[in-house]
UniProtKB/TrEMBL annotation:
It comes from the Bacteria. The keyword Coiled coil does not apply. InterPro entries: Flavin_Rdtase-like_dom, NADH-dep_flavin_reductase, Split_barrel_FMN-bd. This is Nitrilotriacetate monooxygenase. The lineage of its organism: Bacteria, Pseudomonadati, Pseudomonadota, Alphaproteobacteria, Geminicoccales. Belongs to the non-flavoprotein flavin reductase family. PANTHER family: FLAVIN REDUCTASE (PTHR30466), FLAVIN-DEPENDENT MONOOXYGENASE, REDUCTASE SUBUNIT HSAB (PTHR30466:SF11). Residues 43-188 form the Flavin reductase like domain. Keywords: Monooxygenase, Oxidoreductase. Coiled coil: none annotated. It comes from Tistrella mobilis.
Length: 199
């Protein structure tokens, strides 16, 4: 694993994440019926992501389903966090968070931070899985890549806050495969066939 501080150069791991972010059509018609929008995300294939913030007993984190890179120069990412999530206020109060692309062997972490095992708060964090880089926010070890971010801007939309972060440091494991979330389940991509233009 390597860790670097981000300066004026672009963060190549963000571009890598974008290349791995496979999308499928979520609706076959121009209009969706009742529940169409709610069910559409289960059709789309996404990379598993975990956002974390805080220090010590104040640490909080969650598995997120709505997050993406925002721009490469300067490097920025965003995550949409439900305002009822216990991590929400911690992220805003500390002004920093980590944005972690989960590896294929981190399914249990994804489930734990999605509250599938009933755990809450700082009890979700085990020292062997975490370290810190620049901001002091907990950064996931052994992820495909992790970005340590300071909040650049926020936008409240309905039930969520869109949190935009400037990447100040990163760590990455280029040999790791990404954990994929699709059809309401976690998995991996064993085979990816590139589309041929014009066919």
């Amino acid at each position: 694993m390597s860790a670097v501080t981000i300066g004026s150069t672009a963060c190549h791991s963000i571009a890598l994440w974008e290349a791995q972010h496979v999308r499928a059509r979520s609706c076959r018609s121009e209009t969706c019926g009742d529940g169409g929008l709610q069910n559409a995300p289960q059709i789309r294939c996404r990379v598993g992501l975990l956002v974390a913030s805080g220090q010590g007993a104040d640490r909080r984190g969650l598995t997120v389903t709505a997050a993406t890179s925002l721009c490469v120069e300067p490097p920025m990412v965003l995550a949409c966090i439900n305002r009822n999530a216990e991590a929400h206020d911690v992220i805003l109060r500390t002004g920093a968070f980590s944005w972690n692309v989960l590896a294929a062997d981190q399914v249990r972490l994804a489930e734990r931070f999605a509250a599938m095992d009933g755990s809450k708060g700082a009890s979700r964090f085990t020292p062997v899985d975490w370290h810190d880089l620049a901001t002091g926010a907990p950064v996931l070890l052994h992820s495909v890549c992790s970005f340590d971010c300071r909040i650049e801007d926020t936008l409240q939309v309905s039930t969520h806050t869109i949190i935009m972060g400037a990447v100040v440091a990163q760590s990455h494991n280029p040999d790791k495969r990404s954990l994929i979330y699709a059809a309401g389940r976690f998995g991996t991509l064993e085979y990816f066939d590139l589309a041929v233009p014009g066919k």
